[in-house]
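From the shared-data thread, chain only:
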Amino acid sequence: MEALMTQPVETPMTEHITTPVEMLGRWVETQGDQVYLRQPIDGQYKDFTWQQVQSQVQQIAGALRHLGFQPGDKIGLLSKNCAEWFIIDLALMHGGYISVPIYPTANADTINYVLEHSGAKAIFVGKLDYWAEQEAGVGGELLRIALPYETMPAQYHWEQLLELGEPLVEAPLPTAEQIMTLIYTSGSTGKPKGAIQTFHAYSETCKAVVRDLKTTPKDRLLSYLPLAHITERVAIQGSSFYSGSQVAFVESLDSFVDDIQRARPTVFFSVPRLWSLFQKNIVDRIGYKRLNMLLKIPILSSIVKRKIREGLGLQHCHLLGSGSAPIPPSLVTWYHKIGLNISEAWGMTENCAYSIINYPFDASKIGSVGRAVEGCEIKQADNGELLVKSAGLMSAYYLEPEVTQSAFDDEGFFHTGDLCEIDADGCVTITGRTKDNFKTSKGKYVAPVPIERKLAQDPHVELICVIGAGLPHPIALVQLSEGAALQPREEVRVSLQQTLDSVNPHLESHETVDAIVIATDEWTIENEVLTPTLKIKRHVLEKQFNNLVDGTRGRVVRWQDEI
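Structure, as tokens:
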């Protein structure tokens, strides 16, 4: 294990770090009887005070000791977000166990791979939409513990654990270099890799988030993006540990809007796809032309903006964020126009997801992901790749020493795989992925992401992927937005054709897009076109479409079923 833990980045290994469990104790002392977690059940909140959370944390940690688990054992966690997710995570930290969270949408093969690769000895299973299909990935020999929700069969249940054995009140404080968790990447280019994150990396990153975003015990957070992803684990869960903020959860997709209204968040993070859906709902209610007209009338403009914020349940927010995948600059500009400033951020599993952010929001930097935060160093490699170094960098990829070694340069900077531009103000614009560039049949290399960003300006586009390896010219694959899918095909075709005709003249001859092909099958996590964080798996679409579109010529817009 020592070889695997070789850390290319210097960290203060002997420094004492304040862990989330220690912070829990501090909040119990100062605001123990105040509500920390709010879990909606049948439309009503079940509240957990800080004191109640600590009591359950100690009891769960003690129950795991009673069941024979020892510090250093790895324990999986497969569930949608809920109050118990936080409690389990804190209990695993308190007991010295290593958590292995798994996306609640993961298929059986992925679940099986992560559990076997990590060497997990048990798994908590909770709120799941497809547990019957996922159960085969868990395996019958692994000890299962069920959260208090409908889920797969388990040997132990939540209420049993709350009465099993003695609470673990006193436990050794973890050291800075001690492994806290294995975070498996979303696997957009192959098998997921397990990033080893220490208590030092996680704690320092969470403290940086609270420092920069200035969250306090008065803030209200909403947890609904997957906690198995490092962004939610740091930005929401982690910041609550270090700011004392209250956290509410979402009960279901159907109750999502009501849950936001009920939670009244003061900080709200989302993903581009949801921001796009919010936009559609606003426009559907008001209409583009009418909205633009109302915003031009000073007296009415402020009223309209307030009503929109209230309709979204975001009227109390002092911070709005977007991450996980690139958000079209046109969408950020549109929200800015209606008085909602969305700060785009950039990060990775490997650096605890917090490195660069456009905050405080700067409208002149829309299209960039902002500047490196305090304590994060960035630089650009000769090939244009973004390299980062921060306290949040992982120690290694679990059981992959060669991959780990190649991921860092001689100075301890991590190779992100993202291509970038850095302007005179230090703001970073992501221009693509080093592995995304492809060679056409003419032997010319094409960088697809800049082309995608230009074509994505069309409001009918929900998701876009430019492919073309081995083809004469690139092809743009498009998934329409929900509203566009309901419009007559000819209207959509005309708009996309105009967009294509306006973009192509500004591209190099070998980059010009032959055609836009509109997918008739939705791109989802379930059909493995999207990762759990809603990134497009380019290689999957290339495999599906390369033969289908080979030879398509004429700068045209076509539906998949027309080819």
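Residues 50-66 form the longest helix (17 residues).
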